Amino acid sequence: MANHSQLNFQDASSPIMEELMGFHDHALMVALAICSLVLYLLTHTLTEKLSSNTVNAQVIELVWTILPAMVLVTLALPSLRILYMMDEINEPDLTLKAIGHQWYWTYEYTDLKDLTFDSYMIPTADLPLGHFRLLEVDHRVIVPMNSTIRVIVTADDVLHSWAVPSLGVKTDAIPGRLNQTSFLASRPGVFYGQCSEICGANHSFMPIVVESTPLADFENWSSLMPS
């Protein structure tokens, strides 16, 4: 989860998020190289006299045409690769449906049995000692680790957005439409997210909590949950 004064991403807990963080670093390095080159050329232009060879040089025109094209290719190829990875969902191990309401989430585990529950934020006055304010819920989403989870996202009233940053997922919840995303939690843990679409007065009070557990623990939990 995020910490105070944190400038970078949350720790990656899925392969997709690791890819996104790698692409972010790659794009930053490209941007740094471009800024350095522009700063050098600007300094050179201000300190040196321009000649007719510099102003009318066809070689320079060729360079500043080809170089931006190469930069765009170095950004586009890894970006397209990650986009295809995020959209590709092959034989998910578990399908979860998330329905946004004002201002809580409903989850349905239709693959296992008719398992459905609502997830509300725990008010600060009822929060157990050591838990996180405005982030804890009364019913967490439990998923098995190292399993491909497909999440079908929709809404019952207004626009919402189901987002868990450390898992690299963010999908709009739109009334009357089913959107889908997927993730694979690569380690056990508890991952926090929030609705990322302004949805009314209590938009800030509908958190998302995903807990990744070993498969045996997930099976025990699902067998104990009322249908």
Automatic annotation (TrEMBL):
The entry's localization annotation reads: Mitochondrion inner membrane
Domain Cytochrome oxidase subunit II transmembrane region profile intervals = 1-90
Membrane topology term: Multi-pass membrane protein
Q: Which GO terms describe its cellular component?
A: mitochondrial inner membrane
Q: Does the keyword Mitochondrion apply?
A: yes
| Keyword terms of this UniProt record | Copper, Electron transport, Magnesium, Membrane, Metal-binding, Mitochondrion, Mitochondrion inner membrane, Respiratory chain, Translocase, Transmembrane, Transmembrane helix, Transport
Q: Name one GO molecular function term.
A: oxidoreductase activity
**Gene Ontology terms: biological process:** ATP synthesis coupled electron transport
- For the Cytochrome oxidase subunit II copper A binding domain, which residue ranges apply? 91-224
Tell me the Pfam families matching this sequence: COX2, COX2_TM
Q: Which cofactor does it need?
A: Cu cation
Catalytic activity annotation: 4 Fe(II)-[cytochrome c] + O2 + 8 H(+)(in) = 4 Fe(III)-[cytochrome c] + 2 H2O + 4 H(+)(out)
Q: What InterPro entries does the record tag this protein with? A: CcO_II, CcO_II-like_C, CcO_II_C, Copper_CuA, Cupredoxin, Cyt_c_oxidase_su2, Cyt_c_oxidase_su2_TM_dom, Cyt_c_oxidase_su2_TM_sf
What detail does the entry give on cofactor binding? Binds a copper A center.
Give the principal location in a single coarse category.
mitochondrion
- What sections of the protein cross the membrane? 21-42, 62-84
Return the similarity comment.
Belongs to the cytochrome c oxidase subunit 2 family.
Q: What does this protein do?
A: Component of the cytochrome c oxidase, the last enzyme in the mitochondrial electron transport chain which drives oxidative phosphorylation. The respiratory chain contains 3 multisubunit complexes succinate dehydrogenase (complex II, CII), ubiquinol-cytochrome c oxidoreductase (cytochrome b-c1 complex, complex III, CIII) and cytochrome c oxidase (complex IV, CIV), that cooperate to transfer electrons derived from NADH and succinate to molecular oxygen, creating an electrochemical gradient over the inner membrane that drives transmembrane transport and the ATP synthase.
Q: What is this protein called?
A: Cytochrome c oxidase subunit 2
Q: Which organism is it from?
A: Myiothlypis rivularis
